[in-house]
Design a protein that fits this description.
mainly beta; 8 helices; about 5% helix; elongated
Length: about 700
């Protein structure tokens, strides 16, 4: 019944004395050192109780040392050597008073041994103690507990011994203690402390030994006047020291904190972090009381600021604390007793003015085994700071119709902040539109402002401008001219040299003035205008790009030099641009497994920031209806650079072999046609693509 609530495992073995000798150099006199366990103190060790709990218990013991003449000396507990002359002694450790009468909650503990002291030596004596008196406890039948409390709210019990001694109790959590060897005469009951009636108990134990625990169970039965008390059973058990040790002997509750600095008693955190903020109580008996006060500067939780007493906590306060994230222990808890503010700490916010907010928790009382927290009242602070984060938009994440905002988080939980962050953009700095981090549907070539928000915190404004949409000059290739010779003249003018406005070719190299005998392979433009255009267009000119032979010293059957011809657009803009690709129509006739060499390169100054390549290896005998888009892949390593130059190259191939043929794979006309040629590429209507 009672006392079981104070369970501490106290390892008391059978009574023994273990003596050993060691050198003692204080002259001829010897002495005794007494210990109650391996070190000092009663051995109190359990899975949940620290070993140091034994020391407060040991300090309550006294020693009695008797020599062989019967002379006795009494000592308070000490772990020092007690000087003694050589001889044999009876050593007794005891706690409490040897009961000669009935007393309430008055256990007596004793252990003894015989020790021999030699001159100049210390004799170590180790004692184990046990309960040396007897006790009687009363318990109510579990099924009748409520009935008993209702019928007898002021119940009294009285135990009398045959010696005439007796004692009364009104709190059945207490027990009667009396000397071993006593004989019980009666146990009586009173509703209010008067008019006691003997309870009928047969067969009291004839021999009551030390540590006998007599447990009397009573119950309720109907009676003419209502109900009466009856004895249902009696049993005798052996009580152990862990069941009888007074709570006050046990140490004060101790506390270990998690998350707080041990010196400053402060937990410094940034809003969005999820720290541990926990008070763990090391108790040797059930929690009796917990009192604490909150003084929070966080506006959201100022309503919690008050003093709390756990045993008197209202349902309203309990709900408010729980909803805020505070985990409370329960009165009576002993195992893993904690007051946990971790959930609340994760919700605390920082100030928008740059100052830290102090949220103060004061533990005013933690009580167990009738003792309060070691160290007394203690104050801890959860100091919250605003998270630190900014926003930036890189050129590499900006397009003509959208941009992506990047957050830079330096203080706080980046994952939590990014998850809870929102974005806003504006053209005038006053009218803001909410968006995800990818802002779409924008106007090309327009200046915007963008900011990020997390909770009540807003970043400084970042400025960003979308890139303009730029049209390629002469992208339809209709604007060309003859700068040498005549169109279609194979002989006298040695052929014509063609050039395109805003584009360059190798035609100046492939159409030199040369002997008429070499016209077949060295007097023709490698890139020529042709009327073979893509479908559904009003334009009438495409570019025919051919791999040809050229140069002096060659013959009709053996050209001197071979080159794939090309059409090139190389443009640097004052204002940056960022296309997503290049669109065009093409046909292709490869020679001897050749491949086309079509590429787009985007620069920022001299640095390549993006590119795309098409190497066609198959014969494409006709233009497609929709044309082809060559996507530009940008390198994220250079996302901080603004693209301002585009280089487009359309080359007929890589193969430098040619052969004699009057017509190529795609063209049958021999007019202005080189005799020696390789791969042939047709290109029409080129434009930059701005998909985003």
């Amino acid at each position: 019944m009672r006392k079981i609530q104070y369970i501490i495992y106290v390892a008391f073995a059978l009574l023994f004395a273990a003596c050993q000798e060691e050198d003692f150099d204080s002259g001829a006199k010897g002495g005794i050192r007494i210990s109650l366990t391996e070190e000092v103190g009663v051995d109190v060790t359990t899975r949940s109780t620290p070993e140091e709990l034994g020391k407060p218990v040991a300090a309550n013991f006294k020693f009695k040392i008797t020599d062989n003449t019967g002379a006795t000396e009494n000592y308070d507990y000490t772990d020092k050597v007690i000087p003694l002359s050589a001889g044999t002694y009876d050593v007794v450790a005891y706690c409490g008073d040897i009961a000669t009468t009935v007393a309430l909650d008055a256990p007596y503990y004793e252990g003894s041994a015989e020790a021999t002291v030699e001159d100049g030596k210390t004799t170590n004596v180790k004692l184990s103690c046990k309960v040396a008196n007897a006790l009687l406890s009363i318990q109510i039948n579990e099924d009748d507990q409520e009935k008993f409390e209702a019928a007898f709210p002021d119940a009294h019990f009285k135990l009398s011994l045959s010696s005439g001694e007796g004692e009364t109790l009104s709190d059945i959590s207490q027990s009667f203690y009396f000397p071993a060897g006593s004989t019980i005469s009666k146990l009586a009951f009173s509703k209010d402390g008067s008019d006691y009636q003997d309870l009928e108990i047969k067969n009291w134990p004839k021999e009551i030994k030390a540590a006998d625990h007599i447990i009397v169970t009573v119950g309720i039965q109907p009676a003419p006047s209502g109900v009466s008390l009856t004895v249902e059973k009696m049993k005798v058990e052996t009580v152990t020291i862990e069941e009888t040790i007074p709570m006050e002997w046990l140490p004060k509750p101790k506390m270990a904190v998690e998350g707080f600095d041990a010196t400053t008693k402060m937990l410094s955190m940034y809003e969005s972090e999820t720290p541990t903020a926990k008070f763990n109580f090391n108790l040797s008996s059930g929690l009796q009381e917990l009192k604490f006060t909150l003084d929070f500067k966080d506006e959201e939780y100022k309503s919690l600021n008050k003093a709390y007493t756990l045993s008197e906590l209202s349902q309203e306060d309990r709900t408010a604390l729980t909803n805020a994230g505070v985990v409370l222990p329960a009165i009576g808890d002993k195992s893993k007793v904690s007051l946990d503010f971790s959930g609340l700490a994760a919700k605390l916010t920082g100030s928008t003015d740059g100052n830290a907010l102090d949220n103060v928790i004061t533990l005013t009382e933690v009580k167990a085994n009738n003792r309060v927290l070691e160290g007394g009242e203690q104050t801890y602070t959860i100091q919250t700071h605003a998270p630190e984060f900014g926003i930036k938009v890189y050129p590499g994440n900006t397009w003509t119709k959208q941009f992506t905002a990047n957050t830079e988080i330096t203080k706080g939980n980046a994952e939590v902040i990014r998850k809870g962050m929102t974005f806003e953009y504006s053209t005038n700095g006053s009218d803001w539109t909410s968006s995800d981090s990818i802002v779409t549907g924008l106007t090309p070539g327009t200046a915007y402002q963008v900011r990020a928000k997390f909770g009540k915190h807003v970043t400084e404004v970042a400025k960003v401008s979308t890139y303009p949409v730029i049209e390629l000059e002469n992208g339809n290739l209709s604007d060309y001219s003859i700068v040498r010779g005549e169109d279609g003249d194979r002989w006298n003018g040695h052929g014509a040299q063609y050039e395109w406005t805003n584009w360059t070719t190798l035609n100046e190299l492939t159409t030199p003035n040369c002997p008429i005998t070499a016209y077949s392979y060295n007097t023709r433009s490698g890139t020529r205008p042709v009327p073979d255009v893509r479908p559904n267009t009003s334009d009438n000119t495409a570019a025919w790009i051919i791999t040809i032979g050229y140069g002096y010293g060659g013959t009709n059957d053996s050209p001197n030099k071979i080159t794939p011809s090309e059409l090139v657009y190389d443009k640097t803009w004052e204002n940056a641009t960022r296309p997503t690709g290049v669109h065009f129509w093409y046909k292709y006739a490869p020679f001897k497994e050749d491949k086309s060499d079509i590429s787009v390169i985007v620069y920022s100054g001299e640095q390549i920031v993006g590119s795309g390549t098409l190497q066609e290896a198959q014969t494409v005998s006709s233009y497609s209806q929709e044309g082809y888009t060559l996507n530009i892949i940008y390198d994220s390593e250079y996302k901080q650079l603004d693209p301002n130059r585009v280089l487009l190259t359309f080359r007929s191939g890589f193969n430098t072999e040619v052969e004699s043929r009057e017509s190529g794979g795609l063209v049958t006309s021999t007019t202005a046609n080189p005799k020696f040629r390789g791969s042939e590429l047709y290109i029409d209507d080129i434009s930059l693509v701005y998909d985003k």
